[in-house]
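Forum > Structural Biology > Help requests

Title: Can anyone predict the 3D structure of Dihydroorotate dehydrogenase (quinone)?

Hi all, first post here. I have the sequence for Dihydroorotate dehydrogenase (quinone) but no way to get a structure on my laptop. I'd be grateful if someone could post the structure tokens.
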Amino acid sequence: MYRSLLKPLLFRLDAEQAHHLVFGALGLAGGIPGVQAALRSQFSYQHPSLEREVFGLKFKNPIGLAAGFDKDARLVDELAAMGFGHVEIGTVTPRPQPGNPTPRMFRLPPDRALINRMGFNNSGAAAAAEQLRKRRSNIVIGGNIGKNKDTPNEQAAADYVACVQALHDVVDYFVVNVSSPNTPGLRQLQEREPLLALLRTVQRTNQAQRTARPLLLKIAPDLSNEQLDDIIEIVREAGLSGVVATNTTVNRAGLRTPSAVVEDIGAGGLSGAPLRARATEVIRYLHTQSGGSFPIVGVGGIFSLADVQEKLDAGAALVQLYTGFIYEGPGVVQRMCRELVRSGGVKKG
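Reply #1:
Sure, ran it for you. Structure tokens for Dihydroorotate dehydrogenase (quinone) below:
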């Protein structure tokens, strides 16, 4: 019903308006007694072969929701009922911020893609923590953290530290996001020396807590092999638990959408099907060059079982959806999990 009826209606709306409409409706419905049970019955699928343990955490299945959909952790129970094995909230910043001016999210239907320049719009770390304290489900929660737009890169570590301190008791793992193309200058923090210094500072704060959380790094797909080699060394030197590969890309090569339309949209990160091959390439490179020494969460262009399996075969221990969830609808996770079990393609991370 989603692809034949709801999706055509939603795709007539501005992309961000459609997101808010669906988000609000799901939030209202989730507060009605029995609705979450109905969602679980309709969309969730569990099987022992789907379960896995990755960086010390137990996941019901390997398919999670990527950061960006539920920035403020307002729908984690509803999303858990839809069958996700984990939900990554954020990107969260220490202080609330509105993000970039609208319009800032665009669909490219011929490419099954999105371009966004949201700019870390969120209600701040304290608000996200408060939402997570209210949750009832036991789904694994990742906290994707970033810096405020007006924080200079030289002071960025303090923002990431503040997020760790605010969210530490309510998330299961952290992801340091220095790879979004939508906060000016942020990607400069991916260079080896500033990144290593940042991660060491964040890790010290993390390890000073009562129980240290797994700390991961989210990287861009636009890094060279030499930069990926640096990432492998940084993971080891900073004592990270893994890598999320990859964020959105600034590359526009090979799109089916007319170039005039793409140029009119302007800046932003591209996600969806055009990112699939490059994200898989990055995962395979990291896994091979590191000898599989750390877990990788694979993100980018996942719409089907074949896409999931491709990421797992390349070395990913878990995968995440975002654009595929928008295009394929709420039944996509259940469908992928069923097909994974049926195909016998599930492998432990």
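Residues 2-343 form a domain with the TIM Barrel fold (CATH 3.20.20.70). The first strand starts at residue 52 and ends at 54.
Shout if anything looks off.
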